Amino acid sequence: MERIIILDFGSQVTQVIGRRVRELNVYCEIYPFNKFPFTEDGKIPSDIKGLILSGSPFSVRDNNAPKVDLSLFIGKFPILGICYGAQYIAHTMGGCVEASQTREYGRAELTITEGKEIIFDSVPQCSQVWMSHGDTITALPKGAKLIASTPTVQNAAYKIEGNGIYALQFHPEVFHSTYGGVMLRNFIIEVCGCKGDWTTESFIETTVSDLKQKLGEEHVILGLSGGVDSTVAAVLLNKAIGKRLHCIFVDNGLLRKNEFEDVLEQYKGMGLNVVGVKAADRFLEALAGISDPEGKRKAIGRTFIEVFDTEAQKITNAKWLAQGTIYPDVIESSSVKGPSATIKSHHNVGGLPEKMNLKIVEPLRALFKDEVRRTGRALGIKRELISRHPFPGPGLGIRVLGEVTAEKLRILKEADHIFISQLRKYRTNLPPASNGFAENEDGDSDREAQISLYDAVWQAGTILLPVKSVGVMGDERTYEYTIALRAVVSNDGMTADWVHLPYDFLAAVSNQIINNVKGVNRVCYDISSKPPATIEWE
Questions:
Q1: pLDDT tens-place string over residues 439-488
Q2: Which end of the chain has less Cβ packing within 10 Å, N or C?
Q3: What is the pLDDT of residue 474?
Q4: How is 327-342 classified by DSSP, letter by letter?
Q5: pLDDT tens digits, residue range 270-282?
Q6: How far apart are the first and last CA of the chain?
Q7: CATH of domain 200-386
Q8: Which CATH superfamily is domain 3-191 in?
Q9: Catalytic site residue 417?
Q10: CATH class for domain 399-525?
Q11: Is 171 annotated in the active site?
Q12: What is the pLDDT of residue 445?
């Protein structure tokens, strides 16, 4: 299988480069800048067709800037440098990179100065691109040819003759670079010569075959969460090994209203071998007295390990533990210096494999979230499971701000149930979110038909605030909790924008929550984007 390698120098949008390459049906992998996947004998694998160098928060002039020996790769395959990558190529090959007088950030107009360049095929002479850098390339290295400029950046794009090196000072991978996707396609398909034959169907066929060979006749344990990742992983494994897959679905009491029963029933209808474990009281006990978000996450994770381990010990012949790990999890676990600092711990189970002495199998570790959904659809998994909104691993435990109690969970579950139910009922002409369905029931494109607000939203939920306020209900004065509603659109969760939900919808939801959920007298709507906010409040 042909592949493109992306070396990560710490950019916040390196994953976006990977997703853009995958959209071309070309398999790619992201590695830290100092972890190129050489073979055991130190050679470059023959299946690598090209290399992309990402952006970075560092300056190439910094003493601690990330560095890679380009001489190992030049002439072996085409290379594309993006932002820091473009500056690094210039800096290490004899050019000059200096600090800009002003930080160049945002939209810019790119003008192609050289025609007939492959990377600019089907790109207008003038187009919008996105700049994000503090340094600028003031002199190109020997043998380089300027191919594009902007009004403030002369050396906005260049190539080095004879060895397939292209360098772009801007970010072609982001949405704001209007023809950036075309430029990436030209590099991947035309310059690198990739065929673009890595499809969902080929992934399923290859993965099922590999799982059969890897697992043989041995048994596998998988912790189901009701989410998309673990569900798709379960169906892939079931397709490979059938009843030798043992699924455990833990009710931690932090799921949405009736979710445990509903999802468990759906799983049984799919022919999966599933055991449901009710453990809500145990999780509430573990959370008692804890208000710190990280403390709650750790308590939930620790309790899950204990509950899961107890149930797993009943399966005496299991040799493998399956996990719904996806590619962003893999990337984030090996981040180089420079990407985002840890905002919160990941909800994936840590330490469980060592405790249980099981080997690990991760059938989805090569896929991004949108690819997982496409795989699920190709496997015939029900629409309501595949199009479900992302849900945090700690569940409602981090949507009750502060200490979690049974009464607060009751309030939040009832309010959340109303919000999500109404999102499903309300029809809109908004476009479907990336986790929704853009086709009608017959599978034909039907963008003009109305869809539910739920399918137009990438993620939605309610948050119980740790404050009470005065209200009036009937002739009585109340002092009760406030509920915040949250709904965002996003492609991948790395950035997000709040959804402009209709006023009549918000009014109806607010009225229904206040009238029907005892303990709430005020409802607010969160209109913060990510960044600077995050999608979840904790």
A1: 433 344 444 568 899 999 999 999 999 999 988 877 678 889 999 999 99
A2: N
A3: 72
A4: HHHHHHHTPPSSSPPP
A5: 888 999 999 999 9
A6: 41
A7: 3.40.50.620
A8: Class I glutamine amidotransferase (GATase) domain (3.40.50.880)
A9: no
A10: alpha beta
A11: yes
A12: 40
